[in-house]
Write a structure and sequence with these properties.
This protein is mainly alpha-helical. Helix content is 73%, strand content 0%. The relative contact order is 0.16.
């Protein structure tokens, strides 16, 4: 018997390029995570004093949220490429981890004071893209593009 889901519909032409771009975006997040957790003392010493303090004060729960956000985003993107319905809960988990990260950055830490309003651009993009990917996975499931 054929393993193809008979309820699965053909995804639109923009689906594959968009999801491929999402995978690249999330792999860049994985690279950023790797760079952060592998910073040497010499690299940290090159940061400003206030950035050094921020880096040295990062709680473990922030680092765990960062890992869940980026690895979840990458895995969710891969699941979309494979047209697997697990993309939906994975993107939800990734989004929740992004919210934890942003809570730390803008409520707990001094990031706003250090980077100012311009420092909110990338975090805003991250939140918007995480919401978009979560909604895309949901729409893909509802429309039968993933099974």
């Amino acid at each position: 018997m054929n393993d193809v889901n008979i309820n699965q519909q053909q995804a639109p032409k923009w689906f594959l390029p968009l999801v491929s771009l999402a995978l690249v975006w999330n792999l860049m997040g994985v690279m950023a995570f790797y760079m952060q957790v592998t910073m040497t003392d010499e690299m940290i010493a090159k940061l400003s004093e206030i950035e050094q303090a921020m880096y040295n004060e990062l709680p473990i729960w922030y680092t765990i949220a960062f890992a869940i956000a980026v690895f979840g985003g990458a895995l969710g993107s891969l699941m979309l490429l494979l047209k697997n319905k697990l993309a939906c809960p994975i993107f939800l988990l990734s989004f929740l981890a992004v919210l934890v990260q942003m809570f730390y950055s803008f409520v707990v830490s001094d990031a706003w004071d250090v980077y100012g309003p311009g420092g909110a651009i990338m975090p805003a993009m991250i939140v918007i893209i995480a919401i978009g990917l979560m909604l895309l996975s949901r729409k893909s499931r509802i429309n039968g593009w993933i099974g």
